[in-house]
Design goal:
By secondary structure, the chain is an alpha+beta fold. It folds into two domains: about 5-15 and about 60-140 and about 275-285, 60s Ribosomal Protein L30, Chain: A (2-Layer Sandwich), CATH 3.30.1330; about 145-270, no CATH class. It has helices spanning about 5-15, 20-30, 40-55, 80-95, 140-145, 165-180, 195-205, 220-230; strands spanning about 65-75, 120-125, 135-140, 150, 185-190, 245-255, 265-270, 275-280, 285. The chain binds iron/sulfur cluster.
């Protein structure tokens, strides 16, 4: 099994071929905006860009993002083997210009030129009980990452208490603060609970969920639907040009918290919501 080649192909697909759920949501948004409006024109340009990238096998956006991998592997698998294959695939993908060199040493300011470095790419490992491995890949744009936020409830200036009403307020505040920066319309990943670090991790993990995939908890599912409606009433619109489409979805995850803390984290993903995965069962590899 040439694992590196499969990961390389997953990267090529991710960087040049937006997943159908994201593309369909953007296509629906075009129809929802007024004919001749700046919002509709911005979305149409985005759609043209997506089509061109797919046809030419070139990056959908010049910022090919921070590279994040989640590896779920069965008992008997070796993390080292996955790490080696991922790092080699990333290096080759950068040389082939599927990826822009985006890994910078914060001390020297030097770009490593091959997307490799300390925690670059970032790889989460999880051993699970399944008899197959799954590798999920996300390209996280820098502009949208800068629009992420974390709130500690209660938040007195926002009058947001330690309850779901308070959570709603801070999510709306984060989207309102972004004002379309980070290339709206995107997906709002939310993590409720945990400590500061776990809260951010949970928020970002939500971005692997498909658009329209509701949380199994009906209370949270209702919150996701209602918040999406409220966010799209803000009038910020695509790229901040105004309009009805500020976000494509709100995806919320929940985990327990310490009695004295209540964190809400927001991971903002731009319209270039690039994520793909592969399933490896024996010698068979399936792309999704
Ligand atoms: S935020 Fe997303 S769409 Fe905007 S420049 Fe960055 S990667 Fe590209």
């Amino acid at each position: 099994m040439d694992l590196k080649s499969h990961i390389l192909e997953m990267i090529r697909r991710s960087t040049s071929d937006l997943s159908p759920d994201v593309e369909n949501a953007l296509a629906a948004a075009v129809q929802n905006e007024a004919e001749g409006s700046a919002a509709r024109n911005a979305l149409k340009t985005i759609m043209e860009n997506i089509e061109l990238a797919r046809k030419e096998s070139t990056p959908i956006c010049q910022d090919t993002g921070a590279l994040i991998f989640y590896v779920d592997y069965p008992a008997g698998g070796r993390e080292k083997d996955y790490t080696t294959a991922i790092r080699e695939a990333v290096e080759e993908a950068t040389a082939k210009q599927y990826l822009r060199p985006n890994s910078v040493d914060p001390v020297t300011g030097r770009n490593t030129g091959n997307n490799l470095g300390v925690n670059a790419p970032y790889i989460h490992f999880n051993q699970w009980d399944e008899d197959y491995a799954r590798i999920r890949f996300m390209q996280k744009g820098g502009g949208c990452e800068n629009c992420g936020a974390q709130y500690r409830l209660p938040d007195i200036p926002l009058n947001a208490g330690r309850d779901l009403a308070g959570v709603r307020k801070v999510i709306l505040d984060a989207v309102n603060n972004a004002q379309g920066q980070g290339c709206a319309p995107g997906v709002i990943g939310v993590g409720i609970g945990g400590d500061r670090a776990l809260s951010h991790i949970l928020a970002k993990e939500q971005l692997f969920r498909k658009i329209g995939e509701r949380n199994p908890d009906p209370v949270i599912a209702e919150m996701e639907t209602a918040l999406l409606k409220d966010i799209n009433k803000l009038g910020i619109g695509p790229m901040g040009f105004g309009g009805k489409t500020t976000a494509l979805d709100v995806l919320i995850g929940v985990q327990n918290r310490h009695p004295a803390t209540y964190y809400v984290s927001i991971a903002y993903m731009c319209w270039a919501n690039r994520r793909k995965s592969i399933i490896i069962k024996g010698n068979e590899v399936t792309y999704a």
